[in-house]
UniProtKB/TrEMBL annotation:
It comes from Myotis lucifugus (Little brown bat). GO terms for molecular function: 1-phosphatidylinositol-4-phosphate 5-kinase activity; ATP binding. The gene is PIP5K1B. SMART domains: PIPKc. This is Phosphatidylinositol-4-phosphate 5-kinase type 1 beta. One of its GO terms (biological process) is phosphatidylinositol phosphate biosynthetic process. InterPro entries: PInositol-4-P-4/5-kinase_C_sf, PInositol-4-P-4/5-kinase_core, PInositol-4-P-5-kinase_N, PInositol-4/5-P-5/4-kinase. It is found in: Cytoplasm. Residues 3-373 form the PIPK domain. One of its GO terms (cellular component) is cytosol.
Length: 480
């Protein structure tokens, strides 16, 4: 506890000093050598003519590539005053949901920035990545890749603590009913019991397949924008030989929200934003796929109530807001990973091990996102369409027509799971027999499992209602 509050204090003092110091440096274009500059200042507890006195042990504060990061913050529309205010003037809140690496996470009171402690190798990797990474950002600011706003190191008593400042993907002011960390792998990708016991657990791929087996639905334009952004991002990551990243996905159910609103007023909400505070560009999920201030037909434009979430629907038709970003990209494909993969591959089916070569990783990640997680809304028949049938024979024919069309959709979706010469029914057997491919578990639909059909007889006519694909069958008529 003491260490954490000392880290917070040192971060605030260090960043306060370095950002303040930068304002005296004239604006100029970023040069290649700016990426490799490291500025260092000593902050003794009794203070010096450059630095204030403080209650923590003496420490040294290093700022990596200060001019380059200043330029990037500008690129994202963050004014120096806002950056200073968010990080240094309000308390930093420690997140109690750290990942397996043991990193500490802090979020600023206004919800804009996340501070993560990183290992030496990760900090080194980010430094190397900077020129190419920001060349990509410059060309294309529509991205779900993490936005890095600063890289710093605190040294005290022989200990180095390196931190990155980046965008916060999950605003605390919006309650996330479900949070997932998705890698597109199914091997050991279920949240631990300890994680599940937390008040806001982060679930994983297998949990998603179980809870949301129908996926999440978007209108065509939003879906295309999202998939295009993810594809471009994965290609960038692949080009840097980066893998093992995740899509952090927060799901807010709007209908739940209405019920909860009165009970839950602002319990977890961050402090109100400072009046007149500049809005941070590109930091919301919607802006990340859509670009700032644009609204294509069919894409719902951002408004304060959505907090930059992407509108979507569940297969039950519930309205959702999705918050997402790619995280944890600083683990380069190093020798350790290669070794880890080769021995794991001997023991398990190599395809499902989460450590794999970058292009395979990117392809599997994308395939999972576009076939299992995100779907176009036309696949979801939100309002059942009625087809009139005047006889039992016509009713049967219509039912079969609907079933076979949905069954075809299902097959198209699953076709890429088949290996050469394999039949659809063998997918079931494989799913039952396989310990390595739990992604195959949703079974091959039999005729009536492919669609949910409701028939009703009304004034001596028969109707067939098409409902959600893949739901269990409800086939009944109220007079037969
Ligand atoms: P692991 O080694 O398990 O991958 P890690 O320590 O490297 O873990 P991350 O995977 O980067 O940590 O993140 C752990 C958790 O912290 C995430 O599941 C998420 O809940 C939260 N988190 C990380 N980055 C962000 C971010 N930019 N915005 C909001 N929450 C974040």
């Amino acid at each position: 506890q003491t260490a954490s509050s000392a880290i917070k204090g040192a971060i605030q003092l260090g960043i306060g000093y370095t950002v303040g110091n930068l304002t005296s440096k004239p604006d100029r274009d970023v040069l290649m050598q700016d990426f490799y500059v490291v500025e260092s200042v000593f902050l003794p507890s009794e203070g010096s003519n450059l630095t204030p006195a403080h209650h923590y042990p003496d420490f040294r504060f290093k700022t990596y590539a200060p001019l380059a990061f200043r330029y990037f913050r500008e690129l994202f529309g963050i004014k120096p005053d806002d950056y200073l205010y968010s990080l240094c003037n309000e308390p930093l809140i420690e997140l109690s949901n750290p990942g397996a690496s043991g990193s500490l996470f802090f979020v600023t009171s206004d919800d804009e920035f996340i501070i993560k402690t990183v290992q030496h190798k990760e900090a080194e990797f980010l430094q190397k990545l900077l020129p190419g990474y920001y060349m990509n950002l410059n060309q294309n600011p529509r991205t779900l890749l993490p936005k890095f706003y600063g890289l710093y190191c605190m040294q005290s008593g022989g200990i180095n603590i390196r931190i990155v400042v980046m965008n916060n993907v999950l605003p605390r002011s919006m309650r996330m009913h479900f949070t997932y960390d998705l890698k597109g792998s199914t091997y050991k990708r279920r949240a631990s019991r300890k994680e599940r016991e937390k008040s806001n657990p982060t679930f994983k791929d297998l949990d998603f397949l179980q809870d949301m087996h129908e996926g999440l639905y978007f209108d065509t334009e939003t879906y295309n924008a999202l998939m295009k952004t993810l594809q471009r991002d994965c290609r960038v990551l692949e080009s840097f030989k980066i893998m093992d990243y995740s899509l952090l996905l927060g799901i807010h159910i709007l209908d739940h929200c209405l019920k909860e609103k009165e009970e839950d007023t602002a319990q977890n909400a961050p402090d109100a934003k400072r009046p007149g505070m500049q809005k941070v560009l590109y930091s919301t999920a919607m802006e990340s796929i859509q670009g700032p201030g644009k609204s294509g037909d069919g894409i719902i434009t951002e408004n304060p109530d959505t907090m930059g979430g992407i509108p979507a629907k569940s297969h039950r038709g519930e309205k959702l807001l999705l918050f997402m970003g790619i995280i944890d990209i600083l683990q380069s494909y190093r020798l350790m990973k290669k070794l880890e993969h080769s021995w794991k591959a001997l023991v398990y089916d190599g395809d499902t091990v989460s450590v794999h070569r970058p292009s395979f990783y990117a392809d599997r990640f994308l395939k999972f996102m576009n076939s299992r997680v995100f779907k176009k809304i036309q696949a979801l028949k939100a309002s059942p369409s009625k087809k009139r049938c005047n006889s039992i024979v016509a009713l049967k024919a219509t039912s079969q027509e609907i079933v076979s069309s949905i069954s075809q959709e299902w097959k198209d979706e699953k076709r890429d799971l088949l290996t050469e010469g394999q039949s659809f029914s063998s997918l079931d057997e494989e799913a039952l027999g396989s310990r390595h491919r739990p992604d195959l578990v949703p079974s091959t639909p039999s005729l009536f499992e492919a669609a949910s059909l409701t028939t009703t007889i009304s004034s001596s006519s028969l109707y067939v209602n098409e409902q959600y694909p893949h739901d269990r069958t409800t086939l009944y008529s109220n007079r037969e």
